[in-house]
Amino acid sequence: MKITDIHVTPIAISDPPLLNAAGLHAPYALRTIIEIVTDNGLYGLGEVPGSAATTQALLDAADVLEGKDPFQHNAIQAAIEARFGKEGAAERGQSPWDKRRLVHVFSALEVACFDLMGKATDRPVCDLLGGRVRDRVDFSAYLFYKYEGAGGALGFATDPSATGWAAARQQAALDPAGVVAQAKAMTDAFGFKSIKLKGGVMTPDEEADAILALHEAFGPGTPLRLDPNAIWSIETSIRIGKRLEGVLEYYEDPTRGQANMGQVAQAVNIPLATNMCTTSFEDIPGSIRTNSEAIILSDHHFWGGLRASVELARICRTFGRGLSMHSNSHVGISLAAMAHLAAAVPNLTYACDTHYPWQSEEVLVGGRLTFDDGALVVGNEPGLGIELDRAALAALHQQYLACGLTERNDEVEMQKVQPGWKFMATRY
Ligand code: GKR
Ligand code: MG
Questions:
Q1: Domains of the chain by range and CATH?
Q2: Which has fewest Cβ within 10 Å: 92, 162, 325, 369?
Q3: Which of ligand 1's atoms lies nearest the C-alpha of 410?
Q4: 326: Cβ below 6 Å to ligand 1?
């Protein structure tokens, strides 16, 4: 089996006005979809966070891949590295999401190759990652402070004909009551059993109040997480952490950097988790030295693919780290890859993050994937078990061209609402 063609398609999907430490989500989130075609008539799919730079890098990678065997990951990785050079942790940036280019290229290509390998061998991807240890992958409710609005063409407006979660996802949530209402609507609609609140938006005490309100509303049996995306000082992180001891399942990136996280970890009796201070293999020695977190949030888009994520799981087991999973706004190709990975990793024991309920569009035949009582059921279909709806892909590509966005910039979006607003690496 040889690679003959690569199609790279940037798309824009409607995204509501969600708030975070870096600002505000734009009306559209960008993703790049990759399709790798082989000489035996198969195709494999990958999806990564979109930007003009990532799309260009994937287009530049195309000729490196042509003629290669999709089973030969090492050869493909070496060829990509030879083309692009190496990239260090420094390129990640300070935002809540990862801005490195190469990890995205590896991830997109590698996931598409795994999809192909599965189709060629008539095996689901989880079988190629060691075999499933679970059929059902639990996901958590991912709550956001938000302005009123549906995103996409509606922007800050709402669609009065919407019902159920589609109606609830348009409502503003800016205080503890709004957060609890959002949590109820989301858990009712999807059956999620764990809840994460994206913090770093309101004052730290308001966010702690929201967590305490969730604890009160859902009871002690519901695992809760808070993620201020590292914009709190050590002192604030410790003070708020003390308010939330016995309430949080884990405390995600309260402060910036491994050394600071290590100090908070020593002072607060809640496991710390990260997708910001330990984000690549070269960060692992520092993580061990500083004891910066108890749990690492894996993300195959940022750790360089599915194989790398399985390696990360092994390292977590060796060093006594727990393992959970991070997400960003996405469609079903990423969700299917996340589910196959989580199905095959024994120590991925926490419910995974997903932004999927916030999105409404899809590029898959059959439309949106569905959660069964908070979980995705991983089937036995070959590869990722999904097929590309080419008409839907073309429509979302047109939406990309029409919306004019070329990269994610939450600060610029926030400035449209609050002129002069500035991202601060440490705000409180
Ligand atoms: O979607 O606004 C968002 C989140 O803040 C996202 O970009 C983060 O990467 O989900 C993320 C996290 O856990 O830090
Ligand atoms: Mg996080």
A1: 3-123+389-402 (3.30.390.10), 128-377 (3.20.20.120)
A2: 162
A3: 2
A4: yes
